[in-house]
Amino acid sequence: MILDLLDKLYQAFLYQDRWRLYLDGLGVTVSITLGAICISTVLGMVLCLMKLSKYKILRWPAQAYIDIIRGIPVVVQLLIMYNVVLLNVTDNKMVVAIVAFGLNSSAYMAEIYRSGINAVDPGQMEAGRSLGLTKTQTMWHIIFPQAIKNCLPTYTSEFIVLVKETAVVGYIALTDLTKVYSAIQSKTYDAFGPLLIIAVAYFCITKVLSIIFARMERRLRTSDRR
Fold first, then answer.
1. How many CA within 13 A on the CB side of residue 171?
2. pTM for the whole structure
3. In whole angstroms, what is the distance from residue 62 CA to residue 65 CA?
4. DSSP annotation string for 11-36
5. Quick check: 105 and 154 in contact, CB under 8 A?
6. What's the pLDDT tens digit per position in 161-217?
7. Among the listed ranges 7-11, 22-26, 159-163, which one has the minimum average pLDDT value?
8. How does pLDDT run across 79-94, given as a tens digit for each residue?
9. Which superkingdom is the protein from (predicted)?
10. Pick from 164, 152, 25, 23: which is nearest to 101 by CA?
11. DSSP string spanning 126-171?
12. 152 close to 214: Cβ distance less than 8 angstroms
């Protein structure tokens, strides 16, 4: 049984240098994730500030955007972006995927930021204003640093979720890790080997992210105690 398992793994990974396919797929997955997280980190903050604004003309569009994006499956948004929105703009599937996942994740990021800001004691704003700081200065120098610490665990979770959500990019014919499974399974007629390999790959990515952000959290807690 062990020999049979090893043979399946050999056929799925080493035979004819098939590991190169996994490496290419990993590159696609990581590239989409990093590009999307950059978009969502910035756009999410903009949406958060719009939603927290006292002006309805800013609050309502932000709320509508968040509700719509969170109410539609990400794979449907990906297909809409590919077949409708960016159809005549670009034929670069990687760009389409990054934009689609970035816009999707930004709605969740906005809520993460909002919850982090709301978790800061309201007295912090009053204290900053009493020191002569403007509202913007108080938000930037006092509220945001504390909000970031509050947001970090949930931000980490969203980052990890984004990695796993990219597994649907095969719908627009991008060869990511999951798509590599289909390609190799069609050659080996065995599902277990390639599935085990991509499962381990996804686990390693998410575990590394968890370790990185856990260290960041510990450093921030250490700075709080100084």
1. 18
2. 0.90
3. 5
4. IIIIGGGTHHHHHHHHHHHHHHHHHH
5. no
6. 999 999 999 999 898 999 998 889 888 888 888 999 999 999 999 999 999 999 988
7. 7-11
8. 999 999 898 888 899 9
9. Bacteria
10. 164
11. HHHHHTT--HHHHIIIIIHHHHHHHHHHHHHHHHHHHHHHGGGGGG
12. no
Q: Once rounded to an integer, what is the mean pLDDT over residues 106-122?
A: 90
Asked if 57 and 95 count as a contact pair (C-beta separation under 8 A), the reply is: no
Please choose, from the candidates 41, 223, 60, the residue with its C-alpha nearest in 3D space to the C-alpha of residue 116. 41
Our CA angle for 191, 192, 194, nearest 5°, is 75
What does each C-alpha distance from 114 to 76, 129, 174, 188 come to in angstroms? 26, 21, 34, 49
Cβ-in-10-Å burial (0-12, 13-18, 19+) of 126 comes to exposed
What length does the chain have? 226
**Cβ atoms of 112 and 153 closer than 8 Å:** no
Find, among 163, 138, 149, the residue nearest to 37 by Cα.
163
Residue at 26: amino acid letter: L
The token pair that represents 84 in the structure block: 């409708």
What type of residue is 202?
Y
Compute the distance between CA of residue 96 and CA of residue 120 in angstroms, rounded to an integer: 36
Please give the average per-residue pLDDT across 115-136, as a whole number.
80
CA distances from 194 to 1, 157, 160, 215 (A): 17, 26, 21, 32
